Amino acid sequence: MKIAGHTMGTPEYSLEDALRLFKKIGLDGAEIIVQDGYRCALEEKTSTDTLRELSRLAKDLSLEIPCLTPYFSRFNDLDEGIREKEIEGMCKVITYAEILGAKYIRLYGGNFGQDERDEDGKKRGCLVESLRFLGEIAKKHGVSLVLENHFNTMTVSARESVDISYAINHPSVGILYDQANLTFTGNEEYETAIPLQFDKSWYVHVKDFVFRGNDHTFSSSDVSHPQEEERKVVTRIVGEGILDWPAILQMLKDRGYSGWLSLEYERRWHPQDIPDASLGMKQSAAFLRKIIRDLK
Predict the structure, then answer these.
(1) What number of CA atoms fall less than 13 Å from residue 233's CA on the CB side?
(2) By CB neighbour count within 10 A (0-12 exposed, 13-18 middle, 19+ buried), where does 55 fall?
């Protein structure tokens, strides 16, 4: 297994300096955000020259770029114009991934609030159609799309993620396994989630947290992150929270997983919870490396 840093964890850094930090703390790669308005990210309209310069820097640092993470989500919108705009943005990111040698792109499984209903299945149908189309584009560019287990989407749980991925039924569309998201939304624990979605789990996010109190009811008004007043958890350095990462990684290894573990260090959203990545991401990576060494 290889360990990547996620640029969510480096809001104080330029993208180039984040890559240098990842190299310094011994990481193998970088998962890079694609979004306007965030310092440590690629812009949604990035020039080929900029991408090639970044690719050269990564190679000079002996870092891989395994995954790009855009924030398009409305692939299930009933408004065709909105869907087409999101798809257009994703198509650009697919070309960026090819230039950078990134094999994966993180996807949201649509935008679907906790109180929304889809009784006639139209939103699900739009999502499946959109992602099947994007899967075909991705395939032509040698890229795979991975649907994250994520709140306020149509892939919140492992069961939903599996059902959607098989409905899409495309060889270039799989799942991004995120146990922290599953746990704090009250969905499957790892003993259930890993066997359920393993055949489609191609990429893994690693983070940690503790609950603030006895009320574990999850709520978020936004697809990307809960607002501070909505939060029932506190982000932690990996190894200092409640997730049993030794057991999770052992189960993944036992089933044959040898891919990427991406440290989704949430300093962008919750800087009050965790220290600078030079400290907290470094400690998280050391914790993961020890687990990997000790796997049976």
Answers:
(1) 26
(2) middle
Residues 39 and 71 sit within 8 Å (Cβ to Cβ): no
Per-residue pLDDT, averaged over 280-296, amounts to: 98
Q: What are the sequence ranges of the domains in the chain?
A: 2-294
Q: Which amino acid makes up residue 16?
A: E
pLDDT of residue 216: 86
Q: Is the pTM of this model over 0.85?
A: yes
- Nearest C-alpha neighbor of 100 from the set 136, 66, 145: 66
Residue 33 β-bridge partners: 41, 69
Give the chain's radius of gyration (CA, Å). Answer: 18
Q: In CATH, which superfamily holds the domain spanning 2-294?
A: Divalent-metal-dependent TIM barrel enzymes (3.20.20.150)
Phi, psi of 267 (to 5 degrees): -70, -25
**Nearest to residue 278, comparing CAs of 290, 289, 263?**
263
